[in-house]
Design goal:
This is DUF421 domain-containing protein. The protein is an alpha+beta fold. It contains seven helices and four strands, in the order αααααββααββ.
Length: about 180
C-alpha cells in the first residue's frame, strides 16, 4: 500500500521544486518572447506552430523532470526562439527560402464551386469543408467567395457580403 501512496501523493520537496521551476522557466519564457518579438506564438507558418509545441514541451520537461536544470531549460528556450527569429528573417528576405520552407495556401473553393482536386491535394474531405463552412456561418454555397487552406492549416472562408465589392486579386494571389 505504501507504493500506491508514493505514486498518488506528491511529496513536499518535489512539489516545491516543480512550483519554483514553473515560475522561473515561465517568467524566463515571457522575457525571452518580449525581447524576441510577438511572432513567437503567432502561428503564422507551420514552423511557428512547431516552435510553439517545442516551447510547451520544454516548459513541461523542466517543470516535471527535476533532473533538468532551469539553466538548461532556459538555454534550450533561448536557442529555439533565436532560431525562429533567424528563420523568420530568412523567410522575409528570401522568396526562395520562403517557398522551400513553408507550405503555400491552397484554394479549395472559388465562388460556389468546390475544387475537388484541391481538396484531394490538401487531404481534406468534403464533410470537413462543409463543417468549416458551418463554422463560418455559411448558409448556402453561393454565400462563399472563396475558401483557402492557409499555410498554417487554418481554413479561411471569404464571404460574398457585398455584391459591389470585387475580391482584390492579391487576396487570392498564392505566388509569394
Amino acid at each position: 500500500m505504501e507504493n500506491i501512496n508514493e505514486w498518488l501523493l506528491p511529496d513536499l520537496e518535489t512539489s516545491t521544486i516543480i512550483i519554483i521551476s514553473v515560475m522561473l522557466i515561465f517568467s524566463c519564457l515571457i522575457i525571452i518572447t518580449r525581447i524576441a518579438d510577438l511572432r513567437t506564438f503567432a502561428k503564422m507558418t507551420s514552423f511557428d506552430f512547431a516552435t510553439t509545441i517545442a516551447i510547451g514541451s520544454i516548459l513541461a520537461s523542466v517543470a516535471m523532470d527535476t533532473t533538468i536544470s532551469i539553466g538548461n531549460g532556459l538555454v534550450t528556450l533561448a536557442a529555439i526562439v533565436i532560431f525562429q527569429v533567424i528563420f523568420a528573417v530568412l523567410q522575409r528576405k528570401s522568396n526562395l527560402f520562403r517557398k522551400a520552407a513553408t507550405n503555400g495556401p491552397i484554394l479549395i473553393m472559388k465562388d460556389e464551386k468546390i475544387l475537388e482536386e484541391a481538396l484531394k491535394k490538401s487531404n481534406l474531405h468534403r464533410s470537413e469543408l462543409i463543417a468549416k463552412l458551418r463554422e463560418a456561418n455559411v448558409l448556402q454555397f453561393d454565400d462563399v467567395r472563396a475558401v483557402v487552406i492557409e499555410s498554417t492549416g487554418d481554413v479561411s472562408v471569404l464571404h460574398v457580403n457585398d455584391g459591389d465589392k470585387k475580391l482584390q486579386d492579391e487576396i487570392l494571389d498564392f505566388k509569394y
